[in-house]
Amino acid sequence: MEQMQTAIQVNHLMKKYKGFTLEVEDLHIPKGFSTALIGENGAGKTTLLNVLAGIRLDYKGEITFFDQWSDKEREKTGNPVKEMIGYTGPNNYYLPQWTVKQVEEVSKLLFEKFDGAKFEKYVEMLQIASTDSKGKNKKISSLSDGNRMKLMLSGVLARDTELLLLDEPASPLDPLMRDVLCDLIREYIEAGQGEKSVFFSTHNIADMENVTDYAIIMERGRVVEQGFVEDLKEKYILVKGEASDIPTAEKILYSITKNSYGYEGICLAEDMNKLAGLDIEVSTPSLSQISVAVMKKGTRIHLQ
Known about the structure:
The mean pLDDT is 92. This protein has eleven helices and 14 strands. It has helices at 45-53, 71-74, 81-84, 100-110, 116-125, 133-136, 145-157, 175-192, 229-235, 246-249, 287-298; strands spanning 6-17, 20-30, 34-38, 60-65, 69-70, 85-88, 163-166, 197-202, 214-219, 222-228, 236-242, 255-259, 262-268, 280-283.
């Protein structure tokens, strides 16, 4: 089997905080695909993205970029990795007193392959501000959370990159813009013809499922599942059955939801034979259903 080309490969990564440890033994972000990092709030998604983006350097472990450069090499002057990666994150990504015009000017200074015309195209298309002087003089502090995210996306999409690292890009966006975001991600991937990759985090995959090729699920600072979506949908089966069979089914299913009428749950495909004899309906689960099942399995939250 041909070895998978990666945009990023992580080995034995550890970052400790008081009361929380990010510990990733083995993680692969495949090259040429859109990968979702899925996990509840506090699972460690932002910490991982900050490490991969080079925002945090106080960690242990090894990171390899594009199958050739180490994280140590990334920090050396003249190394191309930083130019090859675009990052968007929450909080004060741009200084609040900056204007849209200043964002463009600073980006031109920071990145060799920043295209001002493309930036202005996205700013206008995403309705952040008009491209005349009045629109360009809008301050970051005056923008809504959604428009700040759209401005960050405009900034990275205006660059010539090979990997986008997007921390919760859909969270501040309305449903229409989340759909547009999926289109932008897919266009970026397709334009790269197998050379461009996207890695984005989310605590709610439902709105981003149609643009997800590969999924990594985190729980309490650890990767608990990863794989191509189609493979995961073969590994897990959605099962529905009668209430009378709940005592038997709950001993077999990976996760289960029960009510007075019956049950619904996720079963590992390898365990399906154990349900023989029960009156059940089976179907292919969505990535959202798989993710919730996996997270429920390891969550700190237990409903009585």
